[in-house]
């Protein structure tokens, strides 16, 4: 899934001016999450899908799927290929509207007509391809489509020094160690590129962050880097939706887990309600795994 008509490099909206609506709601969600943590109340629900269904011709992509995304929590959506994860992402991101059920933002029904509508409400989606330009520098990709300008009128110039400074500060504030913001984006590792996309979404005032398989093509070490920055976004009060097919990546970072199978929900679980082994068995099907292990097993050879 690539660009959706919004600024690329993580599909985030233009940075609002200080005190503007996007920055205000991001700060408010973090404050609300902090207050909820202090009182023992659940954090506010940013996004909610109730009994959502979506069909494409005769193909049922989603059927009666429900989930909630709260501020300061990571909701993991797990399932194999064809489970309905991509369709659910597109509903949350404003690409598709559900054919049945409800989509609520801040407790009120939302009827997005485009991804821009979702971005304007602080819902940022980082797709697998990241929509970045490898030959451009890190700071140019960071501000691609939302370049800061100096001066007034039609002849405003690109604030290059300010852009470089802002990117260094934003990456440093999230603990992201990039050698040089002038280096081409293509020279970064996969984990570093994902971390830049996450930092960009946070910088532009995202309240809810949807991550489409951010660790799928990464090695163990780089996947750990990305999970660390997901935790950073969560701790800033963002509600994070982490789409993955790997329970070993989801379980350490997740607070809630939604399991999908062929467009239907196998259940939504809190971390206290399910173990990693149970999560894996539900995804793969316990009986199927046992049958496969039996089929693949070799009988013991008699000793000579």
From TrEMBL:
<protein>
    <submittedName>
        <fullName>Simple sugar transport system ATP-binding protein</fullName>
    </submittedName>
</protein>
<keyword id="KW-0067">ATP-binding</keyword>
<dbReference type="InterPro" id="IPR050107">
    <property type="entry name" value="ABC_carbohydrate_import_ATPase"/>
</dbReference>
<dbReference type="GO" id="GO:0005524">
    <property type="term" value="F:ATP binding"/>
</dbReference>
<feature type="region of interest" description="Disordered">
    <location>
        <begin position="1"/>
        <end position="45"/>
    </location>
</feature>
<dbReference type="InterPro" id="IPR003439">
    <property type="entry name" value="ABC_transporter-like_ATP-bd"/>
</dbReference>
<dbReference type="InterPro" id="IPR003593">
    <property type="entry name" value="AAA+_ATPase"/>
</dbReference>
<dbReference type="Pfam" id="PF00005">
    <property type="entry name" value="ABC_tran"/>
</dbReference>
<feature type="compositionally biased region" description="Low complexity">
    <location>
        <begin position="24"/>
        <end position="38"/>
    </location>
</feature>
<keyword id="KW-0762">Sugar transport</keyword>
<keyword id="KW-0547">Nucleotide-binding</keyword>
<feature type="domain" description="ABC transporter">
    <location>
        <begin position="47"/>
        <end position="287"/>
    </location>
</feature>
<keyword id="KW-0813">Transport</keyword>
<dbReference type="InterPro" id="IPR027417">
    <property type="entry name" value="P-loop_NTPase"/>
</dbReference>
């Amino acid at each position: 899934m690539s660009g959706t008509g919004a600024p690329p490099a993580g599909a985030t909206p233009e940075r609002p001016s200080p005190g503007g609506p996007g920055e205000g709601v991001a700060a408010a969600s973090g404050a609300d999450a902090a207050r909820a943590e202090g009182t023992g109340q659940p954090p506010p629900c940013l996004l909610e899908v109730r009994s959502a269904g979506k069909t494409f011709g005769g193909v049922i992509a989603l059927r009666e799927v429900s989930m909630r995304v709260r501020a300061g929590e990571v909701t993991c959506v797990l399932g194999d290929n064809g489970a309905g994860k991509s369709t659910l992402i597109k509903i949350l991101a404003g690409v598709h509207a559900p054919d049945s059920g409800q989509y609520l933002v801040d407790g009120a029904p939302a009827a997005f007509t485009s991804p821009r509508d979702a971005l304007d409400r602080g819902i940022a989606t980082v797709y697998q391809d990241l929509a970045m330009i490898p030959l451009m520098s890190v700071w140019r990709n960071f501000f691609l489509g939302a370049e800061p300008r100096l001066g007034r009128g039609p002849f405003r110039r690109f604030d290059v020094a300010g852009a470089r400074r802002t990117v260094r500060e934003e990456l440093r504030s999230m603990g992201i160690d990039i050698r040089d913001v002038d280096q081409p984006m293509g020279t970064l590792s996969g984990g570093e590129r994902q971390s830049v996309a996450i930092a960009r979404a946070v910088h532009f005032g995202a309240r809810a962050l949807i991550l489409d398989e951010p660790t799928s093509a990464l090695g163990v070490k780089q996947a750990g880097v990305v999970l660390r920055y997901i935790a950073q976004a969560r701790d800033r009060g963002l509600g994070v939706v982490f789409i993955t097919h790997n329970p070993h990546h989801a379980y350490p970072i997740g607070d809630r887990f939604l399991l999908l199978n062929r467009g239907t929900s196998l259940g939504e679980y809190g971390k206290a309600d399910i173990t990693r082994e149970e999560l894996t068995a539900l995804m793969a099907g316990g009986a199927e795994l046992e049958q496969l292990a039996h089929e693949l097993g070799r009988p013991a050879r008699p000793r000579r």
